[in-house]
Design goal:
10-stranded antiparallel β-sheet; 3-dehydroquinate synthase activity; 3-dehydroquinate synthase; aromatic amino acid biosynthesis; TIM Barrel; 6 helices; alpha+beta
């Protein structure tokens, strides 16, 4: 059939497949342009399937007699409409199902989808859920963290196609390990008062993880979360005391935004000292006036480019140091004890930005 496959990393850990069910030519075109070429048709729409096959490379499948069939009328999947617990209970991988299982959840969605994910874990079968909106597709792809194996986007509008592709691309970015480098601290000094931003995430961070933040987009420092225990204050593993309102922070899609622009529901990327990344949702942002400290660093002794960040001057605010040879554990250096010559982790990238997107243009920032 040649269905398009989009791979995920992290908790997804498996391929996600997308099939399209539509009678709208613009939807078909948008899907094909985004690499999705498996289309579902009712048995009464064979003429439409033939017409589209003549203008685009597609793999048509047909829904009929409680199953999914290819153009040679070979059964390639089973179809189940589920509207009550009894029907859901019958959906088990050992019950002689085909390799592809299509479910139409007519009533509840979240709990049935989670039950299906649990029942089919470890199975070689792919379960698709029929989704009439992007939100439904996202729900099915994230059910019980791992998600179903695929979705069938049944729409007559191109917008859900665009939204789903953008969503999958963001998730696919998590496969890529960010390139991080070592930088040597060249300046540490008090900078006076300023408005700093605490970012509280809907995610627990582990030692070595934090957010990429910097005064300039050309160089973002890995600011450690407050996940470490101390004698004076309880750990807050969901929090990064990230820096002042003007600073850039890395967000999905290889973009940046200002810390002042973050708000509940927005996504950022959590990164560890090896460059492993994952998306996280912002739950709350706190802006308060605090004493700040200026930190500057450069990649080596002959480098001309300096990178800088301002942070709250407190023992709970730390930068991530690079791992030493033979030691995989990252060290968090509190800014209150940071000194010239210390090595920290840095993300070096293009400095010119337009609405957070990297562009090619001449720029000087000091």
């Amino acid at each position: 059939m040649g269905p398009h496959t989009t791979s995920f990393s992290g908790s997804y850990g498996q391929s996600k497949r997308v099939w399209i069910w539509t009678e709208d030519k613009e939807v078909m075109t948008a899907a094909v342009e985004r690499g999705w070429n498996t289309f579902l048709f009712s048995s009464q729409s064979r003429e439409l399937a033939d017409e589209w096959s003549s203008i685009a490379v597609i793999s048509p499948l047909y829904i009929e007699e409680g199953g999914v069939f290819d153009k040679e009328k070979r059964r390639v999947g089973s179809l189940f409409k589920i509207s009550n617990p009894g029907e859901l209970e019958l959906l088990q991988p050992e019950n002689g199902l085909g390799k592809n299982v299509v479910v139409d959840l007519l009533d509840w969605q979240v709990i049935p989808a989670e039950n299906i994910v649990a029942a089919f874990q470890g199975s070689e079968k792919t379960v698709f859920a029929i989704s009439k909106t992007f939100s439904e597709a996202q729900l099915f792809l994230e059910a019980l963290e791992h998600g179903l194996g695929g979705v069938i986007l049944k729409v007559e509008d191109t917008k859900p196609v665009f939204e789903l592709k953008e969503y999958l691309d963001r998730r696919n970015d998590m496969i890529n390990v960010l390139s991080l480098t070592k930088a040597t601290v060249t300046r540490v000094e008090a900078a006076g008062m300023g408005d700093r931003v605490c970012v509280d995430l809907c995610t627990i961070m582990r030692p070595g993880e934090g957010l990429l933040v910097g005064s300039f987009a050309r160089g973002l420092f890995l600011v450690h979360s407050e996940c470490l225990e101390s004698n004076y204050i309880a750990s807050r593993p969901f929090r990064v005391n990230a820096g002042p309102v003007h600073a850039y922070v890395a967000i999905p899609g290889e973009k940046t935004c200002y810390l002042s622009e973050l708000k509940s529901g927005k996504e950022v990327i959590v990164v560890d000292q090896k460059g492993q990344q994952r998306n996280a949702i912002v739950g709350r942002v706190k802006i308060e006036t605090r004493q700040l400290i200026l930190v500057e660093a450069k990649q080596d002794s002959v480098a001309q480019t300096h990178y800088s960040i301002l942070l709250q001057n407190a023992e709970t605010v730390a930068l991530v140091s690079s791992c030493q040879a033979g030691n995989e554990v990252a060290k968090a250096i509190p800014v209150s004890s940071l000194k010239v010559g210390d090595e920290v982790v840095l993300r070096v990238q293009g400095g010119a930005r337009h609405t957070g997107i990297e562009i090619e243009e001449f720029i000087v920032e000091n």
